[in-house]
């Protein structure tokens, strides 16, 4: 008993180590299987009882491939097992789903399972949430004999740990996917973002920030540093003064970058964040070089203009006067002024700079949002 | 003399309950006190404290409910008189796995020192056993089990049993740290988008809302609603458009679908607010794609950009960006957001003539010659909107 219990402790540890690193599931499954004299174990993921993914312990990798390549249709146990789970049964083994005759002579047993060192199974459901059905099964060699009542009784405890570990995996992945998506949203707004922890180490950055590195901002050894002309005022350190913009002298003088340092913006850290440590500073970096302005088709759609009107509006949005706008578009200034008057009344503004301000948000959309 | 490396003990039923509670707390940090109580129960102890050390002198602690009062007293002053803490740390550094009060204090100190006789005994404690774990990132955590003096000191069997429990605590804390940091990163990035006047909503495979930033939440109720956990537009025609776009299969990898949605908000004069640009983007997690697919975490991101003008930027920010005085920056911020000199002067309580004089100086300093040129320049430079609140 004491050896069993120590082993159980070891298995539980392995199960939760897979929670944060899904690639560790095969080895964790192997340990679960071994603690029941099994040859290996399998995690099956299903939607509407249709399996769509499988993780097997290393020892069953070849058998798993053979199953999907030729035995899936002849599996006697899968559908019947899901049905029993649906009816509320906690653990399912061979005798619950197959007749003694089938176990003794069905080709699924005699030609698929037994030659591959299997023959008996027990399975329990470990679905972390209602959407995704997950079952774990242990496969054991025919020669060892069927799973005993005691083993069927002990198995669900492991199942509960697997379920909890899967729940942790889902929660972690969901949160990490959200972060990737938000980093990407900032990329598309041409905004570089770098998050620093209390020690000034980078704990998150998006692609746009990485592209802008080297131009006034560098990341030696995971630390954010200022370079070039910017080093003077801050000695190379990223200043702690929060909020204010730092105009970074980039590699080319006509493309200055502006960086903003924000201390955990807009929120108070929770007690858990205080203890477990989180990003303490956010650095946002923008390329302030002049853009081509808003996309005229977007301006047309948003403000209900014609394309011709939208083209002139876009030029005014860049800060040009009607004369320059007319010249850029190859029309007469008089025409430009007439059209501009119509734009003013359609959009509901009365001054050129008001129109420029109104188009500012559309002008700032990155090239990937056009 | 305790063993340097205790022989691992086998878990009992109470240990199993504690292990379950420990991993239950991994994803829900507010459940740590309860899990710590379960650890105490394995040793018929009064409670357990998790003491976090970051750097040389930064400590914080989570304690089980029955230790809450003692914890407050400790923080309020007794901590400074704790004769055992520094010695415990020294013993850990010498390689000891588990430390009790008998390893750090003399029998005389235990019998007469006020930290024991006044503080610990008054709170029904007196004996402790501590082990150290390291969940990563320079974080050291001491797990300290506290027991009533009358129940006697912890013995070798207790010491051997606390070590495997400590390993589970370490692994669960590692998950907690990752989750808390990741969720906090989401909030920070969401806030960055809010400051850029961009609403963002993330939908899961079933189009349920996983995340919405402050800006998007502000639009919920007026422009959008969450109907049965799914995102919906309040304007009926826009709703049709949004549903059709969400239902459309993504054609090109990473290519956004864009829609212009009519606003459902009407201003006081019954004129309709300008429409919103809405972009739908597939979220494709890079490395984890198979796992993300298994767990249904792939999703759609909705970016919402209102076509109303930005609020005037912060004057101090304009000062720093354009190298102006604060007074010049105040004028530049208002006129640079589309206001007339007359209106800006009124808002700043100066004469229009003064506003025009200051504006001329601003033009000279930044090298522009028209108000709309100043507006376009500020729009490029002053990207951050105001802080919330």
Task: Furnish the topology, listing elements before pairings.
The complex is a heterodimer of chains A (370) and B (389).
Chain A: H1 2-19, H2 25-34, E1 40-47, E2 50-56, H3 61-71, H4 78-86, E3 91-93, H5 94-97, H6 100-105, H7 107-113, E4 119-125, E5 133-141, H8 149-188, E6 191-196, E7 202-205, H9 207-212, E8 217-218, E9 225-226, H10 231-234, E10 245-248, E11 257-263, H11 271-276, E12 281-287, H12 296-303, H13 307-317, H14 322-329, H15 333-347, H16 352-363
Chain B: H1 13-26, H2 32-41, E1 47-54, E2 58-63, H3 68-76, H4 85-94, E3 98-100, H5 101-104, H6 107-112, H7 114-122, E4 126-136, E5 139-148, H8 156-195, E6 198-203, E7 209-212, H9 214-219, E8 224-227, E9 230-233, H10 236-247, E10 257-261, E11 276-283, H11 289-294, E12 299-306, H12 315-322, H13 326-335, H14 341-348, H15 352-366, H16 371-381
Antiparallel strand pairs in B: 1-2, 1-5, 3-4, 4-5, 6-7, 6-12, 8-9, 10-11, 11-12
* CATH homologous superfamily (4th level) name of the largest domain in chain B: Transcription factor LuxR-like, autoinducer-binding domain
Note the beta-strand portion of chain A: 15-25%
CATH topology label of the largest domain in chain A: Beta-Lactamase
Output the structural class of chain A: alpha+beta
The tally of structural domains of chain B comes to 3
- Fraction of residues of chain A in helices? 40-55%
Q: What Rg of chain A do the Cα atoms give?
A: 32 Å
> Which residues of chain A form runs of ≥5 with pLDDT under 50?
none
With helices defined by DSSP (H or I, 4 residues minimum), what is the helix count of chain A? 16
């Amino acid at each position: 008993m004491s050896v069993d219990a120590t082993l159980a402790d070891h298995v539980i540890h392995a199960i939760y180590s897979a929670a944060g690193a899904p690639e560790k599931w095969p080895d964790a499954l192997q340990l679960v299987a071994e603690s029941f004299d099994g040859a290996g174990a399998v995690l099956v993921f299903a939607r509407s009882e249709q399996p769509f993914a499988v993780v097997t312990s290393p020892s069953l990798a070849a058998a798993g491939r053979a199953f999907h390549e030729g035995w899936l249709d002849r599996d006697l146990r899968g559908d019947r097992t899901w049905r029993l789970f649906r009816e509320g049964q906690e653990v399912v083994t061979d005798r619950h789903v197959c007749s003694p005759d089938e176990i003794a002579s069905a080709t699924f047993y005699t030609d698929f399972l037994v030659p591959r060192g299997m023959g008996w199974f027990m399975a329990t459901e470990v679905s972390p949430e209602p959407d995704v059905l997950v079952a774990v099964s242990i496969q054991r060699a025919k020669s060892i004999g069927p799973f005993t009542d005691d083993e069927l009784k002990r198995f669900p405890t492991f199942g509960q740990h697997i379920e909890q570990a899967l729940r942790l995996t889902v929660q972690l992945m969901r949160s990490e996917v959200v972060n990737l998506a938000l980093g990407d949203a900032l990329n598309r707004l041409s905004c570089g973002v770098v998050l620093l922890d209390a020690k000034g180490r980078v704990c998150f950055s998006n692609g746009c920030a990485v592209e802008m590195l080297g131009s006034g901002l560098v990341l030696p050894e995971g630390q954010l540093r200022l370079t070039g002309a910017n080093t003077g005022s801050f000695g190379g350190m990223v200043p702690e003064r929060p909020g204010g913009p730092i105009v970074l002298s980039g590699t080319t003088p006509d493309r200055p970058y502006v960086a903003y340092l924000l201390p955990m913006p807009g929120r108070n850290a929770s007690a858990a964040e205080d203890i477990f440590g989180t990003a303490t500073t956010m650095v946002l970096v923008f390329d302030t070089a002049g853009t081509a302005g808003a996309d005229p088709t977007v301006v047309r759609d948003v403000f209900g203009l014609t394309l011709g009107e939208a083209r002139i509006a876009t030029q005014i949005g860049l800060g040009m006067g009607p004369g320059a706008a007319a010249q850029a578009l190859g029309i007469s200034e008089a025409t430009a002024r007439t059209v501009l008057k119509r734009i003013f009344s359609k959009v509901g503004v009365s001054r050129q700079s008001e129109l420029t301000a109104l188009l500012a948000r559309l002008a700032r959309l990155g090239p990937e949002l056009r | 003399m305790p063993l340097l490396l205790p022989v691992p003990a086998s878990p009992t039923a109470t240990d199993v309950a504690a292990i379950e509670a420990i991993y239950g707390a991994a994803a829900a940090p507010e459940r740590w006190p309860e899990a710590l109580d379960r650890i105490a129960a394995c040793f018929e102890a009064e409670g357990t404290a998790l003491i976090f050390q970051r750097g040389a002198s930064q400590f914080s602690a989570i304690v089980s409910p029955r230790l809450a009062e003692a914890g407050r007293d400790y923080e309020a002053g007794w901590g400074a008189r704790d004769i055992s803490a520094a010695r415990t740390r020294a013993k850990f550094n010498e390689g000891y796995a588990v430390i009790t009060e008998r390893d750090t204090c003399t029998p005389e100190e235990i019998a007469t020192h006020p930290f024991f006789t006044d503080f610990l005994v008054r709170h029904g404690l007196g004996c402790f056993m501590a082990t150290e774990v390291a969940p990563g990132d320079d974080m050291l955590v001491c797990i300290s089990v506290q027991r009533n003096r009358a129940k006697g000191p912890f013995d070798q069997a207790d010491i051997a049993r606390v070590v495997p429990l400590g390993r589970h605590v370490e692994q669960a804390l590692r998950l907690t740290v990752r989750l808390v940091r990741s969720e906090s990163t989401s909030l920070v990035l969401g806030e960055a988008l809010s400051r850029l006047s961009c609403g963002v909503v993330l939908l899961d495979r079933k189009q349920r809302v996983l995340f919405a930033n402050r800006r998007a939440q502000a639009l919920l109720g007026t422009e959008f609603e969450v109907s049965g956990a799914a995102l919906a537009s309040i304007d009926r025609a826009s709703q049709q458009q949004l549903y059709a776009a969400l239902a459309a299969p993504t054609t090109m990898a990473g290519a956004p679908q864009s829609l212009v949605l009519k606003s459902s908000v009407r201003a006081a004069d019954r004129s309709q607010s300008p429409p919103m640009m809405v972009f739908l983007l597939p979220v494709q997690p890079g490395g984890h794609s198979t796992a993300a697919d298994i767990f249904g975490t792939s999703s759609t991101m909705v970016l919402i950009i209102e076509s109303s003008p930005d609020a005037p930027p912060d004057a101090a920010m304009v000062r720093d960006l354009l190298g102006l005085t604060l007074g010049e920056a105040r004028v530049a911020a208002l006129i640079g957001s589309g206001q007339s000199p007359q209106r800006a002067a009124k808002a700043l309580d100066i004469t229009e003539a003064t506003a025009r004089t200051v504006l001329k100086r601003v033009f000279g300093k930044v090298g522009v010659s028209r108000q709309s040129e100043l507006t376009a320049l500020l729009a490029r430079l002053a990207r951050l909107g105001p802080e919330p609140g």
